[in-house]
Amino acid sequence: VTVRGRDHRSREVYDATIGVFTMVNVKRGFTGEYKPAPVPPLPETDDPLELEKRAAALETYKKASGFRGQDSGTYAGQEKILHPDAWSLNPTLPPYEPYFGQEHRNHIGSVHGGHILAEMDRVTQHYAMWMTQHDYFVTAAFDSIEFKQPILPSMLVTFRPAISAIGKTSITIGLDIYIQSHEQPQQQRSHHGQVWLVALDQNEHPIKISLKTL
C-alpha cells in the first residue's frame, strides 16, 4: 500500500507512507473457530494491464521491504547503533495496559489489527519522550510486526517496551504484547514489533538526541 500526499502550495504529489501487509485467509469451522485456509492462486492472464498491475505491486513490495534493513542494519540510510546505556534503561521502563473494548472488534470478533498498531504508535511516542526528555518525535517506520495470537475485547493486555537501538537522531523501541484471560490467566505473548522514531526540532528538522540520565 502506498499513501500519497499533495502539498497544498506547490501541488506536488509525494509518497508519504509505504507498507506491505501480509494477510492470512481464515475460514470458520464446525466448532465456530476461525482457522487458516488456502488462498486460491491468481488466475493466469495475458491482459497487459493486469500484468502491469502485478509488476507494479511486486516493485512496491520490494521498495517497502527496504524499510527493514535486513542486510545493512539501516533504516533509510541511517545507521542503527545499539546504545551502551540502553540495557540499563530497559528495566526501568514501566509496562502499559491499554483498553480494547467491543468497539475495537473486527468482523471475526477479535481486536482489529489497525487499533493495535495505532496503540503501539501512541505508546512508543510516550516512551521515546520519557527516555530522552525530548518532546517531539515522528514515527518513521514499523518494523517486523508479528501477530502471533488474536486479542479479544475481554482480555487484559500488557505492552512491555525495550530499547532496540539508538542513532544520532532516532530511537527504535521494541514492544512485546502479552494477553491474559479468565480462561488463560498466565500471560501469553500475542504480538511483537519495533517502532522507529525520529526526533525533530521546532522547524521539523532531525535533531540530535541523548538518553535520559539515570
Structure description:
The protein has 214 residues and is of the alpha+beta class. Helix content is 20%, strand content 31%. The protein is built from three helices and ten strands. The strands form four sheets. It has a four-stranded antiparallel beta sheet. It has a two-stranded antiparallel sheet with strand order 1-2. A two-stranded antiparallel ribbon has the order 3-4. The longest helix is centred in the middle third of the chain and has 20 residues, at 113-132. The protein is flat, with a radius of gyration of 20 Å. The chain starts with a strand and ends in a 15-residue tail after the last strand. The relative contact order is 0.14.
What is the topology?
Elements: E1 2-6, E2 13-18, E3 26-28, E4 34-36, H1 48-65, E5 74-75, E6 78-79, H2 86-89, H3 113-132, E7 137-147, E8 156-166, E9 170-180, E10 188-199
Antiparallel strand pairs: 1-2, 3-4, 5-6, 7-10, 8-9, 9-10
- Tell me, briefly, the overall form: flat
Radius of gyration: 20 Å
Describe the main β-sheet briefly: 4 strands, antiparallel
Strand residues, percent: 25-35%
Task: Write a concise keyword list for the protein shown above.
alpha+beta, 214 residues
Summarize the structure.
The chain is of the alpha+beta class.
